Amino acid sequence: MYVCLCSGMNCRQVKQALSEGARSHAQVFLRNGLRPSCGRCRDTIVGMIDEHAAQAGANDGAPAALDPLSVAAE
Ligand code: FES
Question: What pLDDT shows up at residue 65?
């Protein structure tokens, strides 16, 4: 699904940029070699950044027992 209609940037490209360390609207564009134009996608991208950060925070606090590799090693 397209996130930015001006540049043609899609959801996969945004997620890839986030996994590579992008943490702002501008950084997402930069990592994809693109430039924002109208800015209508800003809220959507900021929402995806927040979601990514929340997911990363949730994973950081996961108990080791929920990790199948650590359970297998016991
Ligand atoms: S929709 Fe992203 S800059 Fe216009």
Answer: 44
Q: How far is the CA of 63 from the centre of ligand 1 (A)?
A: 40
Q: How far apart are CA 59 and CA 41, in angstroms?
A: 27
Compute φ and ψ for 46, nearest 5 degrees: -60, -40
Write the pLDDT tens digit of every residue in 3-47: 999 999 999 999 999 999 999 999 999 999 999 999 999 999 999
Nearest residue (CA) to ligand 1, atom 1: 4
Superfamily of domain 2-73: BFD-like [2Fe-2S]-binding domain (1.10.10.1100)
How many angstroms separate the most distant Cα atoms in the chain?
54
- 2 strand-pairing partners: 10
